[in-house]
Automatic annotation (TrEMBL), chains A, B:
Pfam families named among the record's database cross-references: PDH_C (PF20463), PDH_N (PF02153)
EC number: 1.3.1.12
Domain (Prephenate/arogenate dehydrogenase): residue spans on this chain: 5-293
Family: Belongs to the prephenate/arogenate dehydrogenase family.
GO molecular function: NAD+ binding; prephenate dehydrogenase (NAD+) activity; prephenate dehydrogenase (NADP+) activity
Keyword match tRNA-binding: no
Taxonomy, superkingdom: Bacteria
BP terms from Gene Ontology: tyrosine biosynthetic process
Name the UniProt record assigns to this protein: prephenate dehydrogenase
Amino acid sequence: MMAIERVAIVGLGLIGSSVARAVKERLPQVTVVGHDAKAEVRDIARELGFCDIIADAPAAAVADADLVIFAVPVGGMADAARAVAPGLRDGVIISDVGSSKAGVAAALGAALPGHIVIPAHPVAGTENSGPAAGFASLFEGRWCIVTPGAGAPEDAVAALAGFWQALGARVETMDAAHHDMVLAVTSHLPHLIAYTIVGTASELEEVTESEVIKYSAGGFRDFTRIAASDPVMWRDVFLANKEAVLATLQRFNEDLTVLQQAIRRGDAGKLEDWFTRTRAIRRSIIEQGQDDAAPDFGRKH
Amino acid sequence: MMAIERVAIVGLGLIGSSVARAVKERLPQVTVVGHDAKAEVRDIARELGFCDIIADAPAAAVADADLVIFAVPVGGMADAARAVAPGLRDGVIISDVGSSKAGVAAALGAALPGHIVIPAHPVAGTENSGPAAGFASLFEGRWCIVTPGAGAPEDAVAALAGFWQALGARVETMDAAHHDMVLAVTSHLPHLIAYTIVGTASELEEVTESEVIKYSAGGFRDFTRIAASDPVMWRDVFLANKEAVLATLQRFNEDLTVLQQAIRRGDAGKLEDWFTRTRAIRRSIIEQGQDDAAPDFGRKH
């Protein structure tokens, strides 16, 4: 297996800085070099000390790296890749952490011709952003989806998978198009819906924003968490995964129309059937370790 | 102020049993009599011991009570009221904990003519149901909305408000129609949306249910919590608060269509603006003590 002794992380926000922290904690023999396009982020990163080296210049950051991970909004991948290109050594593994994969694979491939590009997506995060928001255990027990293209060398794919497993993640491989459909359902549509409803609630004439905040424990507050996620990151995700998001949104709209009609018609049986079916999914999510069993997400009462 | 020395709770699920537990803990001088239409729930309640007395007959449960609280699905309020009617003493305060108020006020008023009916709604709960799911601290720091009708005696309203404050709740009064509009936004629409998306995700052809569960940490799992709430309770809420729910749903649909168009057209600026605005609401909710500040709802990582 290819050895990964030096990792460069480009983009030191929530995910990039969590990768750095996890490497320092779980792979202490690996050197972590960090870079961020913003000087103030590099300053914070230096102060927090979660990388061995912070490089001011992108090409210097990736020099001698065995693995380069781009942890920038998916719309910024191509620019970030072009910026580091002059510093890359032959045989380096190029990867990322973006939430959409087909577009990122194309962008990185075009920006870095002749290099080994193996996109990846750790399905983990919080609603917070920036270098101070990261933590080493973010990937523990979470899935990391690796989407190697047809020509990706097997030993490089194995090395990348081993890297993520070392950070505590479980690894699955699939093709980029399927990833984008799966994540449209499990992540992108939920974010879009949450952003929508939080916007809707804050602009009603009949109900003040202060009332919405005050009585949010009735359910609304659950949506505000993911609607507090990084706006630029999510803008880019929706633009990059447009087709899959619009396709799943259409299915959601159909279902919402069916329930809307059931309410209007007073169809008690249809509502109760629907609400009964959806209970089982949460049980499975908890059984598979993807959420806490504690009521109310374990909030303090 | 009217003295409340004996409380009867009709319906011993999550909310009813939490009220009982909170009274035992915070108002030990008050006698709590519990009743549930289901014999197996009464058996569990006896075993758990959160009431002083469990009455098998509804009319016996309310005998000599100063306050009767109906904690049944809103569609079951009229039947529950008629069942206890023969046992009610003059001057008793009749209240409830239902999530819609105009319909409940009408139902209780019609079922119990000549009695003092003061509907109330503690905005609190978890996704769990049944007598074992309740706990004494459920109402601490949460709002309880009281919706007295025009003829409600002031001392009775004050006594009910004092009762909820004693259980740790903050009390607000408003008219029933406004309550129903506020809760349509902060609770009913969020539940409808969550039920919808969880149903949508479980029935796609392109993505298996097992994939949805596996990768749910990308955001989807947040929706599964409230979509695991009691199906009968929620069926009744949507039927009882139909007009307000459909009105807010229309606003939501408008906004979703605007965002859908922005994605289709690649309108990056509109998406980023929207996603930036929604961040502030979560901050306010946390500042006002209506949610935890810990990232990811404080889930363990």
